[in-house]
Amino acid sequence: MSIHEIFMPALSSTMTEGKIVSWVKSPGDKVEKGETVVVVESDKADMDVETFYEGYLAHIIVQAGDSAPVGAAIAYVAETEAEIEAAKSLGSSGGAAATTTAPEPVAATAAVGAPTAASQNGSNHREGRLVASPRARKLAKELKVDLTTLKGSGPYGRIVADDIEAVVGKVKQPATPPAAPTPTVTPAAPPPAPRTPAPAPAPVAAAPGQVVPFNTLQNAVIRNMVASLDVPVFRVGYTITTDGLDKLYKQIKSKGVTMTALLAKAVAVTLQKHPLLNASYSDQGLVYHPDINIAVAVAMDGGGLITPVLKNADKVDIYSLSRTWKSLVDKARSKQLQPDEYSGGNFTLSNLGMFGVDTFDAILPPGQGSILAIGASRPQLVASADGSFGIKQQMQVNITSDHRIIYGADAAAFLQDLAKLIETDAHSLTL
């Protein structure tokens, strides 16, 4: 008997359990090796999970909406149709799947589909197989687009729905012809559950006295915040005049530049002079990171937060950085971020100024050396050195740093140079 298990994969280093968003395949469906069979909600995003076996999806153990620990079996794949009933019986009895080969630790982990990571060269073909998201495949079929002619824009060259829409000029899905409807456009049976999950219920929608369980993302945030309590930190505040930055923003806002990107760029440029603030602690010693990757906190609908990362923010021009940021925010709020888009941050920004908050302290994320809390820019009566008074726009920033590697003078020097850049040389951020 050749029945294999599909396990709940670990889609991130902090993930301990996953939630099934939807099954792309139904029991009895034929599956190919490397084909997406299920969408799993990790602690960061929703990911496609593939099977490493060819055969038939025989039995689903964990239904859509339910959760399972990492490494737990979530479905059975039978190599032949004749073995489907045996797999169902195995699922009912709760027994372990029998395989034709002796069980080995490596083989067990190989049964988990990787979250659509393609080859190193960025090609959208892997071992002769096309790599495309389920939605892209469905859309390509409906719009009659040959996937083999496309170059994917997704992670590692993966073809995504946007690539299909770009080819057809973003034409909407064709309506069903009145004379002869086809199964592709109007299927006789309901199609597999869509890639986009239903939004998690917001806490405000709960009835008075009701206890709403934390979702996967919220649990991840809780674990990280508890872990941060083990780090000795200190906080330093600084007042920055933003008249120059505000003037620059008004000039280039129409070109798609965001204030978040401007602030991230300013921080990244300043970090070039202060590599210690871009470093992090390890048991082996001080880790100086070669790249300046700025993580920016984004609130999620339904609770929780995530920190998309602007890679090499000091080297990317402000216009490209703004476009990247907009794309990351859209993906974050639709839970479509890929692991490489929310990992690798070395310094974090948390901007509550957009909500009118004057000042606040941020909690240091595990594995980083510093996080900068940014308050709102407001008009203030300011005295100049000659004793005259004037109205200037000012914002309060507060940095939280790991005191094991960064000291008060280091943080103060960084904030001083950041203020100097914003106050006297903001225009250089567009160069």
TrEMBL record:
Residues 131-168 form the Peripheral subunit-binding (PSBD) domain. It comes from the Bacteria. Pfam families: 2-oxoacid_dh (PF00198), Biotin_lipoyl (PF00364), E3_binding (PF02817). Residues 3-78 form the Lipoyl-binding domain. Keywords: Acyltransferase, Lipoyl, Transferase. Its EC number is 2.3.1.-. This is Dihydrolipoamide acetyltransferase component of pyruvate dehydrogenase complex. InterPro entries: 2-oxoA_DH_lipoyl-BS, 2-oxoacid_DH_actylTfrase, Biotin_lipoyl, CAT-like_dom_sf, E2/Pdx1, E3-bd_dom_sf, PSBD, Single_hybrid_motif. It comes from Anabaena azotica FACHB-119. Belongs to the 2-oxoacid dehydrogenase family. Its cofactor is (R)-lipoate. It is an enzyme of class 2 (transferase). Residues 172-204 are annotated as: Disordered. Residues 188-202 have a biased composition (Pro residues). PANTHER family: DIHYDROLIPOAMIDE ACETYL/SUCCINYL-TRANSFERASE-RELATED, DIHYDROLIPOYLLYSINE-RESIDUE ACETYLTRANSFERASE COMPONENT 5 OF PYRUVATE DEHYDROGENASE COMPLEX, CHLOROPLASTIC.
